[in-house]
Structures
1.
Amino acid sequence: MQVIAKTININGIVQGVGFRPFIYQLAQKYYLSGEVANTAMGVSIYVEGLEKDIDSFCSDIVSKKPPLAQITTIDIQPALVQNRNGFHIFPSQSADVRSTCIAPDASVCDACLHEFLDPNDRRYLYPFINCTNCGPRYTIIEDIPYDRPKTSMKHFLMCNACSSEYNNPGNRRFHAQPNACPLCGPYVTLYDSSQHPVSTDDPISHVRTLLKQGFIIAIKGIGGFHLAVDAENEDAVCRLREKKLRIEKPFALMSFSIEQIVNYAHVRDVDKQALLTVQRPIVLLSKKENSTISKHVAPNTSFWGVMLAYTPIHVLLTQPPLIALVMTSGNLSEEPIVISNDEAFSRLSPIADFFMIHNRDIYVRTDDSIVRHMGNDCRVIRRSRGYVPTPILLKHKLPHVLACGAELKNTICLTKDECAFLSQHIGDIEHYETYVFFQNTIQHMQRILDIQPRIIAYDLHPNYLSTQYALEQDKMVKIGIQHHHAHIVSCMAENQVDGPVIGLAFDGTGYGTDGHIWGGEILIGEYDRFIRFGHLAYTPMIGGNAAIKSPWRMAISYLYDVFGHGIDLPFLKSINSQEIGFAKRMREKKINTPLTSSLGRLFDGVASMIGLRNHVTFEGQAAIELEMIAKDHCTSRYEYSWSKDIPHVISISQLIEGIVQDLNSNVSASDISTKFHCTLIDMFADFCVHVRNQTGLNRVVLSGGVFQNAILFCGLINSLSLQGFEVITHRLVPVNDGGISLGQAVISAFIAKTLV
Ligand code: ZN
Ligand code: ZN
Ligand code: FE
């Protein structure tokens, strides 16, 4: 049989993830000779052997790759046979041989966990055990090339045993940059709130006891500090809320195993899969009634946010009899999560009773990611630890672009070729510290991804700090992008779908091209342009942003539109009558009453109108509670209609009239909420049919934060699919403003192309 040869070039995350040893073993399996080497873009392989063996080798590369490897492209070419002897791993020599694709952080793998719990292993209970398949990556990188001296492991000199693992191509720890052991690696120490070391042989066991006693512990993790308490301890949970100034926003939970989680939450097979992925995100799970978890962990919602222990430290901390720990980000209110030991002592000492720290520095702040399984797929709601910096793969090659994102839930995005690198969740950059984090993230990602953007994209909102940042940059082509256009294109890009599409962009706030605040938008969207085909009718936001914090102001505004002054509903009795009078006068005189077409505000207004809440303490709170009280099925709808000309204005006065009628006939809040949701589903599905009749378009893209509402999201998918639409949705990219930067980047690249 004839011997042939091939060269295989692979791009993607293939360095520092055990890829070359994997190739080496695969070559042995198929009796191939040749070599594998790192290149600037990934790895290059030369193999010779029988054709059928080379074919199997190539298909195994894709199907059996190591868990952290991500292949973006694989190029296989015939080559001349060189009659090699054996297969070799070519050492990488120079600094210019480097990949700019870096792996995300990964939860401790089974092999490491096994050693960790084996009393005879030299790393028995060593909290920093890791290998090429697991451990920190993105969070410890200072610069490229990704090599130990460019990580926070540079301070630790490997002992002989670790070093021989590190240099042995057959070893699981070959080139595992964070490789360490108790002799040579980082270690954990425990301090009390006055920064005195606590004398203990076993800090982690000691912390377990302290947790059981109800103390608040600041714990250094992979991407930052957590604040932890025993989730069954009501007093501890309440004390944490008070000290953290976090009144009602749900806390995340962490448990050791699925068996522990089923004590307090319903875990479907799909949830189990999500919990067990190597990213170990927070998964939203339905609560079980009468569990022992404190109700103050997540008040007024039917979900817990739960993650499995993902570092060896967490594994020890969450052992029974503890069922779950509250593990909330180590910060005060909306500030960025704390990453350094000094910062922890200075900023978290008013909150934490003890500090469990270690001496491996975190260079890059990365929050826990959040996912939810809904509409037959797992959806990333907050994309951070475990996902970043894995690129989103695009259909089109793009130039180097920097997109600055929006204001709340900010992320930034950098593009290069067919890769879009979405940053980790940065947060609300209206806070100064978060804005600094935003700037640092831009610098850091440009450096480690080797991207020098000449195009910068920003939101049209003139007051966003991200916009101001973009406008301050020199020597860049600056392109302003409409917020909802960015939402739709972010979903198109993620799904590698070209326009034109029917785009439903529903959210709380986005600056419109007419200077009003949009948020209930039906667009005809393409990569470089859009038409506003329809939108919800404009309503004044009484007091501007104050109406976001106080949904009763929206309720009054919607009611005023329909009924003028003469309306009296029970919810009004719970608001100061002077304030109501003042609000009505502002509305009449049009003082500080920007117009909005936002669907998010409509949810808020309806929630207030039916007596759910007049004030919110976090974004989306009223809308979430409105969703929580709705039932699965309904039979009735409110009326709706839209105007003739484009953009069609979708009237909501019949809806408001109907709700008031129901309130006057003592229909329950739950029934009104159900009917409200069903009306929206029918209304938007009907509108899409109308758009299809007018334009012939059959593809509908759903994006914007309002689609975190499962009833609306799943209801629209069902209804649109039944009517023959192809429905495109987010999975990897957040549906909320965390996805905006991706849309901005793609749009600006396409606009720049037509500019050239
Ligand atoms: Zn491992
Ligand atoms: Zn060692
Ligand atoms: Fe938005």
Note: Residues 109, 111-112, 130-131, 133-134 surround zinc ion (ligand 1) (CB under 6 Å).
2.
Amino acid sequence: MGKRALVTGVTGQDGAYLSQLLLNEGYEVFGLVRRSSTADVNDVRLRWLGIADDVRLVDGNLRDLSGLIRTFRTVQPDEIYNLGAQSFVKSSWQQPILTGEVTAIGVANILEAMRLERPEARFYQASSSEMYGLIQEPMQSEETPFYPRSPYAVAKLYGHWLTVNYRESYGLHASSGILFNHESPLRGIEFVTRKVTDGVARIKRGQVSELRLGNIDAKRDWGHSKDYVRAMWLMLQQDEPDDYVVATGRTTTVREMCRIAFEHAGLDMDRYLVIDPELFRPAEVDVLLGNPAKAKEKLGWEATTTLEEMIREMVDADLRRLTLAAAA
Ligand code: NDP
Ligand code: GDP
């Protein structure tokens, strides 16, 4: 019998790529999906990867402990990947309480369900480089102190420390991956890379004439989601649970990332880019740069996709999407 994995956030970017990896590894994959009136479109990313029929969707919500307990009883997972979250930093200022309920307390709910129903299972928490916020060291590692700069980052910090605490309190096999920004053609449209690649594709097709961005001096350590979900899986294959930074070790400005996208489409960025002060954030994370040395040493993991390759892949995918939409 193959192992059973329960993935929260299965309808999101990482949920899709992780499900693909787990299916390839022979797992039975169960994905937690919150009920909505648009159930017909919530598996769009799984469909993009051609695996919608292979993932078993189960109703549930990270805010609902009793439902999670029931899910654990029926699924009996061997591995749990907690990817579900209100994951967009900017929205977390508009919805700080919801962000806390899902992104922070949601972790308590799922850890409690696991502790009560399936303490022998292995647990992965999707922690974030946003926890470093106002960075305390030029290159951030597992040892770098945190300084969160948004309600999202504060909520993630709670989830991170609760994961560590449940490991230490109850001996659970609970690991936390501190993942730096990672993107793909399946990235949500509100995040800056996808906003840029979608915008460039629309400009190329003549559908719009400008791209509005906020702080383009911000720097991020961007990798590919497909690479990063492998690190999640590797963490749960270790004998001992632990925390790992997952990053490329290279940081780039939003401006430069944007230039790569425009250049790939054969467009002059300076003609189309508009800076909109409305898009600046109440508090900014100016720069993130991760040190993936521990992941390399202990997991044998390394990023394999460059920023240039990834942005070009994303622009091409967005151009293809527009072509398909026009033909429909
Ligand atoms: P997405 O925003 O693409 O996916 C978030 C997922 O969470 C969606 O499936 C969403 O479901 C689900 N979700 C939201 N609220 C609830 C809820 N109340 N109950 C159950 N599920 C819920 O995120 P990514 O795939 O990009 O990221 C995966 C995880 O990794 C997230 O926790 C994110 O915060 C974290 N992370 C991401 C990084 C990145 O660069 N991508 C970096 C570091 C951490 P629905 O489709 O219904 O909205
Ligand atoms: P984050 O690192 O999780 O907040 O990922 P984002 O992709 O949302 O943002 C990355 C950086 O891009 C942040 O420093 C943002 O301030 C900056 N940025 C500049 N313009 C925009 C924009 O229009 N949208 C988003 N999402 N980010 C922008």
Note: The radius of gyration is 19 Å.
